[in-house]
Structure formats: structure tokens, C-alpha cells
Specification:
Structural class of chain A: mainly beta
Mean pLDDT of chain B: 75
Number of strands of chain A: 60
Low-confidence stretches of chain B: 4-19
Largest sheet of chain A: 16 strands, mixed
Largest interface: A-B, 32 and 34 residues
Distance between the termini of chain A: 87 Å
Helix content of chain B: 10-25%
Oligomer: heterodimer
Number of domains of chain B: 2
Number of helices of chain B: 2
Radius of gyration of chain B: 20 Å
Strand content of chain A: over 45%
Strand content of chain B: 35-45%
Shape of chain A: elongated
Radius of gyration of chain A: 32 Å
Helix content of chain A: under 10%
């Protein structure tokens, strides 16, 4: 029986291959007409032959053969050749719609305007043409023009064009640029050219496929679309670009994939508004022109070295809902002559609002004036895990043009409602809003030399777990009113005159504590309004450096935390809970841990610290720094 | 095992339906006559005003169309021209069906390809 099955299987294989194909070759282009489709091939006046709608001048035909080549409908196959010319083979069903010319290994293909999709039942749901590239050339390219959407599939191609773009798509419709599963593809353009990118598309560009695409952009960008770009599945490595790694307009969406960007002369990813007025996000991104960047998944590793360059820069909004981002900037600050201001690098930058609702973000900025997150609009963090560090010093172009390194900064209102944020800034503020700042959830751990958390206007904490540790200024500094209505707060200031929780009393603003569980090493701002609970205090905070303290509200444990070993630390420890607070030293943390391992929801053991009643005049003096905490400038 | 065999047979039936086999390429001239040639390893060449496909040679202006066919559709007169003796006298080249060039004296009963100043013809010598 096994033998019978073998025979049948062999027959099956054999039968599937029996299908004649008429191959009409014109120069380096072969048109392949399956016998079953060819129908009547008509001659006219002894000068021309028409097959499946395509007319050939007989004098131009190099050869005609019949063989059993399998033909895939809608497929145009381009094979580059290191020792000869590129060869193009074209499925008969699309032959009448595509003009092809080959000059060495430079291939130009044009989809005619008469094409509006072919047989949708032929295995290609959208009925579009697939241009499949393979082979290699050190002097080759693909130029694709015309009309109607199509797919460019990279099936193991290594292509260098020393005099222009490796792939230049002038077709303004949606283009799928796909790397075939299991293939590695490398595209390189020429230096000192006029092309906009190694891969340029006038139309929408969907980067996808389960293969690998390596890009080297020697003149400007690595990949550029004059419309939107979407990324799915693709492993994309841009190892060099004179400009941006990826540059597009309208919007950019990363659904999945693995993107690695390095060796860049400018930003990692930049998306700008195409027109003058943003549509905002539209349903299904239909006809969207927002300049927004959406990261919904995938892995992005971005390494930026250029001065004042950005890892991911949105001309509109930047929205991150998932994915793993590892972005590092090492470039210094620079003077922007257009805006007449000093600029620093930023790992993530939005000209509009920024929202982070998920994902794992590891951000590091080491250059002068560098920031990890910078939103020119509002910043809303509701999820995800953010680990960010800025280690640079201030960039100073002139006395009036400086860029200060901040870890997380927004020009608009900042809201933190979830997620886990660990932010550190070696020389300036850790988290700063140039407007209001509201924290109502999440785990926030900010460490900075300047204010750990700062707002230019009112600040409100009503939920979440907040650790704000400043080694040289205030723990939390509101340059408006400061409201603590709930949540769990540990703020640590440097020694006086800094305070742990600072409101702008100089401008008649005030600290209001009406709820939550609070520990302030360095005390509350003088003249604080405290209600709804009990405040107490202790002294000699420095004696607890490196120890775990536990805060209890009545009989309920609030949290435990490890006192940092700052060289400068306020002496006063002010505590507040809605019931009677007790503070225990030498506890062992348990339960859920947070604040980069320095906090926990529960604790055990330890011994009580003697607390006295809090006097609003026994805290620190006016906190250091005005708006922005400019003390360290 | 019977089930596996049945599945295999069923699978075989599907591709067989699509694996259209066209063993012939049939040429039709403007006068309606037809000549079929085998598609096996077929090379078609165009040389000036003539087209040669396997054993068949056609004057291009006389060709109307060609198509793949499942059977030999050659008519008795297909591709076989009546040649005037005068034309035969002017034959520049004569080939047998094996493609060997021969002289007029070597022609016996059978099919031959002759090239004249007026064109290329297939002739049946009886």
C-alpha cells in the first residue's frame, strides 16, 4: 500500500507541473503566457503579435519558446545579476499593464493607468501586482512608476545603486514593501546623490514581511515616504543614513516587527504633517494627515549620535501603546538657526501631545541638553514601564540660548495615571511640566540633582506611588499650588533651604495636603495647609540613610521605602496620613515592590521612630528655584 | 490506509483539472488552414518575413493567429501549399521534415519545406 501511495504522490507532483507556457522575450524582459490563459494569439500584417492584450512588434522579439515554466499570476520577477544584466519575467495576465525597461541592472517598471486590479481570485485578494526582487548587483536599482497600488517583495536581493536610490517608487498609491520570509535583503544607495532616500516612495509605504531588510542611506534618509508609513512584522535594520533613519509624512504606525536604527546623521524616525492643517487621528487612519506616530507593538532599538537629533520625533502626536523601545541619544546640544534657540537631543519628541499607555521603554540621553522624553504639547502616561536617564549637562550656546537636560518634560500639562516610571537626571529636573502636573496613578520614581519633580504651574497628587528624590534641590516643586489629595508620596530634598514638598509661596501659592500617605524628608513648605488627617515629624533624617522605613496609617500599613544615601539631605522628616501616622525603621519590605526596588506595599519588623506633632513652621524654608528650578543652570 | 488513499486520489483530481496539458500549438493562416506543432521544447524563430515553429514555416503576412490546443488540428492541407512548378524551379532551399537540406533531385514522396523568393512553403510531393 505504501508503494501505491508513493506512486500516486509522484503522479500528483508530476501532473501539477504539466502546463505549457509561451515565453516571449524582448531584450531582457520575458513575458510568460500560460497556455490555459493565452487564448488566441493574433498576428497582424506580419508585423505584430498580440497576446493577452499585449502587442509585440515582431521585429523586437528576441525569442519565443514554449516550456513548462510555472507562472504565478500578477507576479513580475526581477532578478539582478552581478555578471550580466538584470532579467525581468512577467506573468501574462499583467503583461499588458506593465512597461518594463532594463539597462544593465537598472530596471524601470511602470504600471499603466489602464490597470485597476486584475483577477481577485488568483490568490491575490486585492488583485494587485507583485514585483519580486532577487539576485545581486553593485550597480542596479528599481524605479517603479505609474498608477494603482502594488507590492514590492524582496526575496533575497542585495542591491547597490552608486548613483541614486536603490528603490525609487514614483507611484503615488499604496505600496507594500515586503521582505519575504526567511530572506535577507540589503539595499544601499549612492553617496552625494540627489535622491531623498535609499528607499523612496511617493505613495503610502507599508513595510512588512517576515524577512530582513537592511538599509544603508548614504545621501539622505534611509527610508522616505511622501505619505504615511506602516510597519508590520518586518525585521528592519538601518545601519547608516546621512539624514533620518525613517522619514515620512501624514502618519507613521508601527504595529509589530523589529526595527534597529543606527549610524544616522539626524533623527531615528521622523514624521511630519504633509499639509498645513492636521486632520488629527481618523478612523482607521483613513485620509489621515496628522504627523502622528503610533507605536502599537514591535521592538525598536534606536541609537542616535547626531547633535540635537531625536530618536523618535512626531510632528504631531506621539502615541505609544505597546512594544519594546530602547532609545539612546549621545549627541550634544546644538543651536537651531531657524528657531534661534538651543536644542538638545531627545529620545522621544512630539511637537504635539504625547501619550504612553503601554510598552516597555528604556530611554537614555547622555549629551548636553539631552532629554529622554520631550512633549511640546501635553504628556499623558497611563501605562507601560518607562526607565529613563538623562546624564548630560546643560548646553549653552549663549546666555540666552541654552538647553537643559531633563529626563521627562512637557510644555503642556502632564498627567500620570498609570504605568511604572523610573526617571533619573544627573544634573537637572527629573520630571518637569511647564504647565500643570497631575499624578493619580502608577508608580513614579524620580531622582534628580535639581527638583526631582517640578511643575511650572499647579501640581496635584491624588493617587499612585510617588518617590521624588532630589540630591540638590526640592523633592517636588510646584510653582503654583501643590495639592496632595491621595496616593502615596515620598519626597526627599537636599538640606535647607530646600524642602521636600514645595509650593510657590513667594507668589502666594500654597501646599495643601488633604489626603494620602506622605513622607517628606526635608519637610513641607512653610505655611502648608494640612487637613483631613494628621501630620507628624521627626528629625535627623540622615541617620536613616540606607535603611528601610515603614509608614503606617492608624493600624494599616501604607508602604515601606528605602531611604537613599544622598550626601545632602534635609533633616526634618514630615509624615502625613488620614489617620495617625507611625514611622518604623529597619523594616523588611514585602508585597508588591516598586520604585526601582526601593518601595513595597507591605513590611514587617523594625522599631518605631519617635514622632512629634507637626508645626507648619518647622518645615523647610522656601524651596529652591523658580519655575523650571533653574538653580542649576 | 484506504482513507489516505482516497484523500490522495481526491487531491490528485483537483490539480489534474487545472494542469491543462496543451501538447500542440496550432497556427492558423489567413486562408483558414491550420497546422499544429508539438509544444515539447518548442522554439519559434522569426527570420525576416518567415516564422518557423518546429517543422512548420510560415510567411508572417499569411499568419492570422496561433493558439494552444489539446490535439493536432492540422488539416490535410494545413500548411501545405500548392506550389507552381515555376515556383519550385525557383526554390532556393529545400528541407525535409528532419531539417536536412536537400536538393530537388533528392525529393521523393512526402512533405518538404521550400524557400523561394516569394516566401517559404510546405509542399506535399505525391
Amino acid at each position: 500500500m505504501k508503494k501505491t501511495l508513493m506512486i500516486i504522490a509522484t503522479m500528483l507532483t508530476g501532473m501539477a507541473t504539466i502546463a505549457q507556457t509561451m515565453n516571449i522575450r524582448v531584450g531582457n524582459v520575458t513575458y510568460q503566457f500560460p497556455a490555459a490563459q493565452a487564448g488566441e494569439m493574433t498576428y497582424s500584417d506580419g508585423t505584430s503579435l498580440t497576446v493577452m492584450g499585449r502587442t509585440f512588434t515582431l521585429a523586437d522579439i528576441t525569442s519565443m519558446t514554449v516550456d513548462e515554466t510555472a507562472v504565478t499570476d500578477n507576479l513580475v520577477n526581477i532578478v539582478y545579476n552581478t555578471s550580466g544584466d538584470a532579467q525581468v519575467s512577467m506573468a501574462g495576465n499583467v503583461a499588458q499593464y506593465v512597461e518594463a525597461s532594463v539597462s544593465g541592472n537598472h530596471v524601470t517598471l511602470t504600471q499603466l493607468s489602464s490597470f485597476a486590479g486584475v483577477d481577485a481570485t488568483s490568490g491575490n485578494e486585492s488583485g494587485e501586482i507583485t514585483y519580486q526582487l532577487s539576485g545581486a548587483s553593485t550597480d542596479g536599482s528599481l524605479t517603479l512608476g505609474g498608477s494603482y497600488k502594488c507590492t514590492v517583495q524582496l526575496a533575497g536581493v542585495t542591491l547597490t545603486n552608486p548613483s541614486g536610490a536603490a528603490i525609487n517608487i514614483t507611484n503615488s498609491k499604496r505600496i507594500q514593501l515586503s521582505a519575504k520570509k526567511g530572506t535577507e535583503n540589503t539595499l544601499t544607495d549612492g553617496a552625494s546623490g540627489s535622491q531623498k532616500a535609499c528607499i523612496y516612495s511617493k505613495g503610502q509605504l507599508q513595510l512588512q514581511g517576515n524577512g530582513t531588510l537592511n538599509v544603508v542611506g548614504r545621501t539622505k534618509h534611509g527610508i522616505k515616504s511622501a505619505s504615511y508609513i506602516e510597519v508590520k512584522n518586518l525585521t528592519l535594520n538601518i545601519t547608516q543614513a546621512a539624514g533620518d533613519g525613517i522619514n515620512c509624512e501624514e502618519y507613521l504606525l508601527v504595529k509589530s516587527g523589529n526595527i534597529s536604527l543606527s549610524g544616522l546623521g539626524d533623527d531615528g524616525i521622523q514624521c511630519d504633517l504633509d499639509g498645513t492643517t492636521s486632520t488629527g487621528e481618523t478612523t482607521g487612519h483613513e485620509d489621515e494627515d496628522s504627523g502622528n506616530i503610533y507605536i502599537e507593538g514591535g521592538t525598536l532599538k534606536v541609537n542616535i549620535t547626531a547633535a540635537a537629533a531625536k530618536g523618535i520625533k512626531a510632528g504631531g502626536e506621539l502615541r505609544i501603546s505597546d512594544g519594546t523601545l530602547d532609545v539612546t541619544t549621545t549627541g550634544s546640544g546644538a543651536y537651531d538657526s531657524d528657531e534661534k534657540d538651543a536644542k538638545g537631543c531627545a529620545c522621544l519628541k512630539s511637537d504635539g501631545n504625547m501619550t504612553i499607555s503601554g510598552g516597555t521603554l528604556t530611554l537614555k540621553s547622555t549629551g548636553t541638553g539631552g532629554k529622554c522624553i520631550k512633549a511640546d504639547g501635553t504628556l499623558a502616561i497611563s501605562g507601560g514601564t518607562i526607565t529613563a536617564a538623562s546624564t548630560g549637562s546643560q548646553y549653552r550656546y549663549s546666555s540666552s540660548a541654552t538647553a537643559s537636560p531633563k529626563c521627562i518634560k512637557s510644555d503642556g500639562a502632564m498627567t500620570i495615571s498609570g504605568g511604572t516610571i523610573t526617571a533619573s537626571s544627573s544634573n537637572h529636573e527629573g520630571i518637569e511640566s511647564k504647565s500643570t502636573l497631575d499624578i493619580n496613578g502608577g508608580y513614579v520614581c524620580a531622582t534628580a540633582k535639581d527638583d526631582a519633580i517640578n511643575s511650572a504651574s499647579h501640581m496635584t497628587v491624588s493617587g499612585g506611588y510617588v518617590m521624588a528624590n532630589s540630591t540638590g534641590n526640592d523633592g517636588m516643586d510646584a510653582n503654583g499650588n501643590f495639592y496632595i489629595k491621595g496616593g502615596n508620596v515620598v519626597a526627599i530634598a537636599a538640606s535647607q533651604p530646600e524642602v521636600a514638598l514645595d509650593a510657590n509661596t513667594e507668589s502666594r501659592y500654597q501646599l495643601y495636603i488633604t489626603g494620602g500617605n506622605v513622607v517628606a524628608i526635608g519637610g513641607f513648605e512653610n505655611g502648608s495647609s494640612i487637613s483631613g488627617g494628621t501630620a507628624k515629624q521627626a528629625s535627623s533624617a540622615s541617620s536613616y540613610k540606607g535603611k528601610w522605613l515603614g509608614l503606617t496609617n492608624g493600624s494599616t500599613q501604607a508602604f515601606a521605602f528605602k531611604v537613599p544615601s544622598n550626601s545632602s539631605m534635609g533633616s526634618n522628616i514630615a509624615v502625613y496620613t488620614s489617620g495617625t501616622p507611625t514611622l518604623t525603621t529597619g523594616v523588611t519590605g514585602s508585597g508588591t515592590t516598586f520604585w526601582d526596588g526601593s518601595g513595597s506595599t507591605a513590611f514587617s519588623g523594625g522599631s518605631s521612630i519617635s514622632l512629634s506633632d507637626y508645626s507648619s513652621n518647622q518645615g523647610g524654608g522656601p524651596g529652591g528655584g523658580g519655575p523650571g528650578g533653574g538653580r542649576w543652570w | 490506509m484506504k482513507k489516505a488513499l482516497f484523500v490522495l486520489m481526491a487531491m490528485m483530481a483537483v490539480p489534474a483539472a487545472y494542469a491543462d496539458d496543451y501538447p500542440y500549438l496550432t497556427f492558423e493562416t489567413t486562408d483558414g488552414s491550420k497546422a499544429s506543432v508539438s509544444t515539447s521544447q518548442l522554439t519559434i524563430t522569426i527570420d525576416g518575413t518567415t516564422l518557423t515553429a518546429g517543422t512548420q514555416t510560415f510567411t508572417l503576412v499569411n499568419l492570422a493567429k496561433m493558439y494552444f490546443s489539446t490535439s493536432d488540428e492540422s488539416t490535410s492541407a494545413t500548411g501545405v501549399s500548392n506550389v507552381m512548378a515555376a515556383d519550385l524551379d525557383e526554390a532556393a532551399e529545400i528541407y525535409d521534415l528532419n531539417g536536412r537540406r536537400i536538393t530537388r533531385d533528392q525529393m521523393h514522396r512526402g512533405i518538404y519545406i521550400i524557400k523561394t523568393q516569394k516566401g517559404t512553403y510546405k509542399v506535399n510531393v505525391k
